[in-house]
Amino acid sequence: MTTTIEVEGMSCEGCEQSVEDALDGVPGVTDATADRESESATVEGDADPDQLVAAVEDAGYDASV
Question: Which CATH class is domain 2-64?
Fold first, then answer.
């Protein structure tokens, strides 16, 4: 399953990596890719979307599904 999350506040490659690392830590995530230009992250796996949003917010970014 693929889930796309809107992520606001990424301004550099380091931000993208921080979001990807946060998402990779959520149970059920098999792959995560963040893109600051589209202000989104694409997640593969069967993780709960609410947990994905919470992980990104805990990393310091605004997120929504």
Answer: alpha beta
